[in-house]
Amino acid sequence: MATFEIRSLVKRFGKFTALDGVNMSADAGEVHAFLGPNGAGKTTTIRCMLAILKATSGTVTLFGRDAWKDAVELHRRVAFVPGDVNLWGNLTGGEVIDLFLSMRRAGKPDKARYDKYVSLFDFDPGKKCRTYSKGNRQKVALVAALVSDAELFILDEPTSGLDPLMEKIFQDSVLELKQSGRTVLLSSHIMSEVEKLADTVSIIRGGKVVENGTMAELTSKARGKTLEELFLSEYEGAG
């Protein structure tokens, strides 16, 4: 059974079709990269997965269950990190992490695991969130996700605002998730990051998935091109 499976997903806003028959899936222990420029449909797809938006038609299942109908139960098994994290300014980073975990009914994080990621990402959880830079706000969301017991990690531009050292730590953390059998959906504009982490890739354009396959399949199809060159070639002449 796939960890998540999206079949013939359509989402319309009035007369505008944001998603037009999207198909995508990933199994346990897989990192699936979801690529596309701003406005291509990535965030809309993710919002349908998280039951923030209801699909016009098609199906979205997580762990074999309907993502919309069973959202409350499923969210306890999912961790989400957006690309632009907004926090409560009067709470400390540590308090926000506790709050995020309590929303998932996950309880207090394992102290050793919590200390590990706080140290790796090098931020002070005792400071008020209003004092944090964008990068530190991202770290709060990343630590909250990584210390959880989630089985599916949905990461939408998660390294936005992080410096190269922190990006490397993030990549190592994702590889650990993969090795432990967790599933990761990674939306990223950093092609080197995708090439290091992804097992499978979907490229979306204008609400339609135009490429879908393993990294090996896409590399073979690229015929010597890099993933970035293949990605860009999908948009040449599009408009």
What labels describe this entry?
239 residues, alpha/beta, six-stranded mixed β-sheet, Rossmann fold, four-stranded antiparallel β-sheet, 10 strands, 9 helices, single chain
List the helices and strands and how they pair.
Blueprint: E1 4-13, E2 16-26, E3 31-35, H1 42-49, E4 57-62, E5 65-66, H2 71-74, E6 78-81, H3 93-103, H4 111-121, H5 134-146, E7 152-156, H6 164-179, E8 183-187, H7 191-197, E9 200-205, E10 208-214, H8 215-222, H9 227-233
Parallel strand pairs: 3-8, 3-9, 6-7, 7-8
Antiparallel strand pairs: 1-2, 1-4, 4-5, 9-10
Description of the structure:
With 239 residues, this protein is an alpha/beta fold. The chain has a domain at 4-86 and 150-233: Rossmann fold (3-Layer(aba) Sandwich). It is 36% helix and 26% strand. It has 9 helices and 10 strands. Strands 6-7-8-3-9-10 form a 6-stranded mixed sheet, sandwiched between helices. A 4-stranded antiparallel sheet has the order 2-1-4-5, with helices on one face. The chain starts with a strand and ends in a 6-residue tail after the last helix. The model has no long low-confidence stretch (mean pLDDT 91).
C-alpha-based Rg, rounded: 18 Å
**Corresponding CATH architecture of the domain at 4-86 and 150-233:** 3-Layer(aba) Sandwich
For the sheet with most strands, the description reads:
6 strands, mixed
- Indicate the percent of residues in helices: 25-40%
> What name is given to the CATH topology of the domain at 4-86 and 150-233?
Rossmann fold
Return the string of H and E elements.
EEEHEEHEHHHEHEHEEHH
Poorly predicted tracts of residues: none
Give the number of helices: 9
- Mean pLDDT, nearest integer? 91
What spatial form do the alpha-carbon principal axes imply?
A: globular
- What share of the residues does DSSP label as strand, in percent? 25-35%
The CATH class assignment of the domain at 4-86 and 150-233 is Alpha Beta
Walk across the major sheet and give the strand order. Answer: 6-7-8-3-9-10
Number of strands: 10
Query: CA-to-CA gap between the ends?
Result: 37 Å
State the fourth-level CATH superfamily of the domain at 4-86 and 150-233: P-loop containing nucleotide triphosphate hydrolases
Structural class: alpha/beta
